[in-house]
Amino acid sequence: MAARTLLTAGITGVGMSYPDRILTNHDLEKMVETNDQWIVERTGIRERHIAEKGVGASEHGAKAALQALEHAGVRPDQVDQIIVPTVTPDMIFPATACLIQDMIGASNAWGYDLEGACSGFLFALQNARAQIESGAARRVLVVGTEIMSAILNWEDRNTCILFGDGAGAVVVEAIDTERQGIFDSLLHIDGSGAKYLYQPAGGSRIPPSAESVAAKQHYVHQEGREVFKFAVKGMAKVTEEVLERNGLTGKDVKLLVPHQANIRIIEATQRRLNLDDEQVMVTIDRFGNTTAASIPMALRVAIDEGRLQEGDLVALAAFGAGFTWGATLLRWTA
Ligand code: UT7
Fold this sequence. Notes:
The protein has helices spanning 25-29, 36-43, 57-72, 96-104, 120-134, 157-160, 210-214, 224-244, 263-272, 284-287, 294-304; strands at residues 8-17, 22-24, 47-49, 81-85, 110-114, 139-147, 165-175, 182-189, 197-198, 221-222, 255-258, 313-320, 324-331. By secondary structure, it is an alpha/beta fold. Helix 3 (57-72) crosses helix 4 (96-104) and helix 8 packs parallel to helix 9 (263-272). It is globular. Oxa(dethia)-CoA is lined by residues 34, 38-39, 42-43, 118, 157-158, 161-162, 224-225, 227-228, 231, 261-262, 265, 289, 319-321.
């Protein structure tokens, strides 16, 4: 039997949405014992957007999805699949993908949520790519969306200063093979790191109870220094590896679009690949860490700033809870 020819997958549209309300470092000074200088020097964050109470991840996810579809010139009813990487779904079930499907009128789609924490967007993109390459789907929507403010302990300065809310979405479609599109991805998980960054309660092991709430177990818990050590090495190494196995170096990269957790983690990858500042996308100052939304949001900002042209080599890189980490290479096709 003749081998089936694989199709090529590329990003053809990008969108984002985030709450209007801005919380600055100076605002945080009034809430916990911290200061603007510490936050800027240790993380690179100046401000983040925070949703009003009652706004779920689906709301900004749907808005980002509609912008991405418009950018791609695709109608909602032409979407075959919706994959939603998130750690802050509207509810544990049903999937936020279902809610977004209904909100945008994607009447012919199926889909699911994917939990890969800060690497969730890269994991979802890899699934979208496989669906397109195999011919199982023609158009896949990947929507990273987070309301991190809902799971933060606003009395814990170690964590509450780090995160923000927002959503970023991409449309992945079959493209002409010569345009290359998404061409390699190197992804990892290592659950021995689970204990360093997690939300202890609310799942099956510690269901929500008066006790779990009193013990603040439904919030993000992080041993920042431990996560930092792994992130700084992991993100740089995996990005270098995926470039190397394609015969590429930092010189070939037009834009590195890393997960935005800490400017010092981003700079470690930048140094390892020998990249100039203009080769690195930084949005953490404006948005903080938006977990699974940070990479697609940064892609949208890059487009708005005119930093991406057809054919440019783009490297995406992430590290997050799990641990999860990885890097993806693509030629720009949106
Ligand atoms: O996106 C998912 C993956 N997550 C990450 O990649 C996060 C990785 N970790 C980090 O980015 C960093 O570890 C943090 C930004 C979370 C913390 O930075 P750090 O340089 O590792 O600081 P630290 O935790 O070692 O704390 C240094 C000091 C401590 O005081 P002592 O013990 O030295 O007296 C903290 O209590 O800074 C103190 N501190 C603060 N001071 C002012 C911690 N948080 C704050 C704060 N304001 N908000």
